[in-house]
Amino acid sequence: MNALELKDVRKQFGAAQIIRGANLAVAQGERLAVIGPNGAGKSTLFNLISGRFPASSGEIVLNGENITRLKPYQINRRGLARSFQISNLFVHLSVYENLRCAVLWSLGYKYSFWQRLGGLRDAHERVEIVLEQIGLQRQRAVLAGVLSYAEQRALEIGITIAGGANVILLDEPTAGMSRSESDAAVELIRKVTIGKTLLMVEHDMSVVFGLADRIAVLVYGEMIACDTPANIRNNAAVQAAYLGGADEEAA
Ligand SMILES: Nc1ncnc2c1ncn2[C@@H]1O[C@H](COP(=O)(O)OP(=O)(O)OP(=O)(O)O)[C@@H](O)[C@H]1O
């Protein structure tokens, strides 16, 4: 079973066709990068998958279940978690508390007293695991607002994976980072997504080619190619429409 499938998904805002029939099948454990020029519809595609916008037509299937008409929290509970370009952190809470909120939310912190006690213990253990994964154990008590930029982005990734979702959507996870910070972020993303399915929108071609098993190319709302990095690099249509010299930069 695929982790995620899009079947002829379309989105229009008024008369403007923004996504023009996207078809995609992402296998369990696969890492897929979505690339394309500014305004191609990449964020819109993520907004459709995560339920923020309803699709105009077509079908979105997560872990075998049709999620096309579900709300974001319902999709989240079914195993899909998403990070945002814009920071999603509680800046006045500590690193630990930020992660704890994310874990408790995913556990559905609203049941009976006894379940809640069990839930709290589970949450603590889960937070410890995520802290270790994102390398922020020593900053656990630090307020999120005073972390370095790269640490904040690592915490956001931690919050995204904290609930144990099997499909992770990352929107430009290395935006605004220096080369060395983004190299470290690639390693972090690789580590925390082992055994999970990753979809990411990313403009930095060295990140894309460093992480992705497959690359989907979106141009004006149409997916013009979806293939291995090597094939995308050599795809004439992709080069003409978008990639240009960017592959040389990444090589
Ligand atoms: N809520 C909306 N209402 C109307 N038009 C929208 C809406 N959201 C996005 N669009 C339009 O859809 C098009 C695609 O935007 P989108 O943000 O998805 O592109 P993108 O590929 O993510 O771009 P970038 O790389 O610059 O982030 C743009 O022309 C944008 O103006």
From TrEMBL:
ABC transporter domain mapped to chain residues: 4-245
One Pfam assignment: BCA_ABC_TP_C
Domain of life: Bacteria
GO cellular component: plasma membrane
Molecular-function GO term, any one: ATP hydrolysis activity
Organism of this sequence: Rugamonas rubra
Gene3D superfamilies linked to this entry: P-loop containing nucleotide triphosphate hydrolases (3.40.50.300)
Stored InterPro entries: AAA+_ATPase, ABC_AA/LPS_Transport, ABC_transporter-like_ATP-bd, BCA_ABC_TP_C, P-loop_NTPase
Protein keywords: ATP-binding, Cell membrane, Membrane, Nucleotide-binding, Transport
Protein name per Swiss-Prot or TrEMBL: Amino acid/amide ABC transporter ATP-binding protein 1, HAAT family (TC 3.A.1.4.-)
Signal peptide (residue range): none
